[in-house]
Structure formats: C-alpha cells, structure tokens
Amino acid sequence: MRDYYEILSVVRDADADVIKKAYRKLALQYHPDRNGGDKDAEDKFKEATEAYEVLRDADKRAAYDRYGHAGVKAGSGGYGGGHAGFGFEDALNIFMRDFGGFGGFEDLFGGQRRSRVQRGKDIRLKMRITLQDVATGVRRTLRVSVLDACESCAGSGSADPGGPVTCGTCNGVGEVRRVQRSVFGQFVSASACPTCGGEGQQVRNPCASCQGEGRKRSERTIEVEIPAGVTTGNYLTVRGQGSVGPRGGPRGDIQVVLEVEEDSRFVREGNDLIVDLPLSFSQAALGTQAAVPTVLGEETLKIPAGVQGGEVLTLQGRGLPQLGGGGRGDQHVRIHVWTPNELSPEQEVLFRKMAELEGEPPSEDSRGNRQGFWNKVKEAFAV
Ligand SMILES: [Zn+2]
Ligand SMILES: [Zn+2]
C-alpha cells in the first residue's frame, strides 16, 4: 500500500488547501467519465480519493501520521469507515461530495455537461412556394407560434423571488448514480433524478402565470431564405429560433418543410420543365412565332415550318436552377397539332381543296428530310 502523501505528490506538512488541489488534479485526470472504464485509471482514481479522504480530515491524518495505514483502518481507534473496503463507489461519492457532484465536475472540465435544462421541442411547419420562387429563390417572413419565457417569473417557473431551489434528492446534480457490479467488472450507471426530472432544481411555489412551466405561448417572426432549385419535401432548419425549453431551457429549432405548388402550365422533371404548345395545321405547316410561358416570363419561340405533332423543341437553360448552384435545366416545348372539331363552310371548302393537293404521309422507309420521323415522335413521347 503506497504512502498517502506520495500518492498525492504532496509534502508531509502540506496544508489542507494544497492537498485538496493535488487531489482535484489527479481526480480529474483519472475520473472514470474521462477514461471510459479503464481499469488502471479506476484504480488510480480510487487510490487518490482514499489518500485525500484521510489527509483532508485532521483526526484521520494525525492517526495516519502516527500509525500509518493501520491507524486509519476500520475498527482501529475509531477512524474507520474509510479505509477498509474502500471501494470505487466510495471514491465517486467523495468526489461528488467535495466537488459539487457531476455538474460541478463537468464545469471543472469546462466541457459539455449533461444538460440539466431541457431544450425546447423543434417546431415543424409547412410552407408553400410557387414554381417562380423555385426559379429565383425567395426570402419570406413567417409568423410562428412558439413558447417564450414567461415574463412574470423570467422563465424560472417559480413565484418565489429566489427562484427554484436545489433539488434535495440529487443535490442539484440532476441525476442519480449507481455503481453496479457484474461479471464484467463494475460500472457506473447514471439516470435522471426522479424528483426533479434531471433539472437539478425544484419549483416550490409555481408561478401563477405559467403554472410553473416557465414559458408561455407567443408569436415570433422569423426570416427564411429559400434557395433556388428546391423541391417539395426539402426543408430548411432555422436554428435556435423555436420554443424555449421549460424553466430556462434553450430554444429549439424551426424546421420549414417546403411544398412547391402545382403550376398547371408546367410539368417538372427534376430541373427541366415541360410545356405543351398547341398549334393549328396551318401554323405547323407554315411555321410561326409562338408565345411560350417560361418560369421567368413569356418568351417568343420560332416554330419551324413543317413541325410535327409530338415533336419537342428545347429552350436551353430556361428550366430551373440546380440547387446549390451549377447551371440550369432546360425547358422543353411539346408540340400538339390540333384538329378543328367543327368547320365553317368557308373552311370546309379550303380543306377539301387541300385534300386534293395533299401528298402521302411520311413513312419509316421514306427518303429525304422526313427520314426517322416516327423515331423522333417516339422519342418525344418518352420524355
Ligand atoms: Zn411564469
Ligand atoms: Zn433532483
């Protein structure tokens, strides 16, 4: 058994403060929470705590100075309770007792401590945007119903001027620790304190305005910036703008789920858009200039003479932008040649005249510029 002064690396006449500091340093180094169950670290933690427990106490220390380890053993001179059967559990309890428990321990590390306060729940809301918004990106202001800190109690939930009090069950730690032994060794299990639900504090006299919740419903305005190129189901996360947690918990997030409204003029295929353009026989045969809707406004499209029903003309780069940058899709214009379902007497005369002059329909084996016509039509329908 090593000498207690040696374990803590302190001189024999070190004062209480030096001993406490020396122990704290070792305890932080070998604490099980920092060493992931390492057996060696556990032993060192236990050893240092045992040495500290004896040397911090003037009576035990005097007995130890006089009789050595035998002087502080259980049953010998009434200084027991520490040394004999001094276990890992005792070590943890001593550390928690003198260093403010788990929360205090984490504070010493300056690291992330188990949050005693609950963060507000995330809010999910739907937002409808137009295809036009998708094309350009858009900034929107939204009114969101959130839970804000109660003004009467400043979010504490307590009507007492001093606010909530430290929980008696866990002494403000927020959790209850137990050392469990199994065939695999011993490990520490921690669970939320049943009295305070892990908050470490209790409201004795709940605030009448919020019934002790520490928060009340209110409206909040948020700004969202929707990038170009989004689709239905994409969502934006507005961090830390949602509801506060109960009794001083930080704000949760707001998730804005996007829903792109149907636009009857367009069919969307990824970043490409498809529009249907009806043409009369004569327009198709003679060629024309047609006004075509695009997502950025109307455009004039030159229709070549002899265009066929089902043929697809493409306006390159007039589709939707790629989300995150990197080009735009195309807009495809699908030609439909419509047949009049009623003819005026004058039209009928002309159509009959036309019929006399009309040639043969194009066929797969026909030569000339109509070659492959049917294939083209098939391709168009595959879009
Ligand atoms: Zn309140
Ligand atoms: Zn508690």
Principal-axes shape call: elongated
Amount of beta strand: 25-35%
* Neighbour order of strands in the largest sheet: 10-11-15-14
Give start-end ranges of low-pLDDT stretches: 75-84, 101-115, 365-371
Q: Give average pLDDT, whole number.
A: 84
Alpha-beta content class:
alpha+beta
Largest sheet properties:
4 strands, mixed
Question: Can you characterise this structure?
Answer:
The protein has 383 residues and is an alpha+beta fold. The chain has 11 helices and 15 strands. The chain binds zinc ion (2 copies). Residues 167, 169-170, 193, 195-196, 200 line the site of one zinc ion.
Primary descriptors:
28% helix; three-stranded mixed beta sheet; alpha+beta; Helix Hairpins; 4 domains; 383 residues; elongated; HSP40/DNAj peptide-binding domain; single chain; binds zinc ion; four-stranded mixed beta sheet
Please summarize what this structure is.
This protein has 383 residues and is an alpha+beta fold. Helices cover 28% and strands 26% of the residues.
